[in-house]
Design goal:
Elements (H helix, E strand, L loop, with lengths): L2 H15 L4 H8 L9 H8 L7 H10 L4 H5 L6 E2 L4 E2 L1 H9 L9 H16 L2 H23 L9 H5 L1
Antiparallel strand pairs: 1-2
Length: 161
Amino acid sequence: MRVEEAIGQQIARFREARRLSLTELGELMGRYLDRPWSRQAVHQAERGRRAFTAAELTAIALVLDTSIPALFLAESEPIELPGETISPEEYRGVLLYAGKDAPLDGVEELIVALHDIGEVLARPSLARLARIGAAAEQVAAPAAERGVGAAEPRGPERSRR
């Protein structure tokens, strides 16, 4: 997948989530650019058939209420650059890297956190704990329905029954 295609997929995804037509998105682009984009220009952008200027990426992010890095996110496919194809992991690393002393913005922090959560959830020990928890819930549900395990009143409350 080319970088332009990855950006185009994100534009389409954000546009559809905001329930904008191709024409509406193009018109909104005109607010930030010299002139609006045509319906065809938006269609070409969503299909990855055009390169983007920095001003256009900024306008797209503003219109779609997102960040520029979010426009570059891609599925887990290799990314084709003119000179070489890079792995999804390398591409994601480029998007997330901000230098060792630079703070991450909110989107980057969220992406890193979700990746870390995925790594933790993939651990075999956690999977075993999840299976044990599911089995315990299955055993506890019928017992709770029968009232087994419910605490009996003690002391003076018991004698009032």
